[in-house]
Amino acid sequence: MTTQIKVKYLDVVLIGMGMFIGFCVILMHLTGMWPCQILSSTGNFVNIDNFQTAKDPFTSFAYASHQWLLGFFKCS
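Now predict its structure.
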């Protein structure tokens, strides 16, 4: 007996992801805001640096994910 995983509608998922990424790039081009600028302005607005010493899980997760995104996009 062989088990095969059927992936239905894989083409629809890939086209949807491509269109979403394309829409985001067009939106970023029109607004002039790129990921590093968005992350820095969000960090300043929310004052994310104060989350570093937080004890509850949500704020520590928010700080860790913000730092990860900064590293991912290689923002200075």
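DSSP finds three helices and no strands in the chain.
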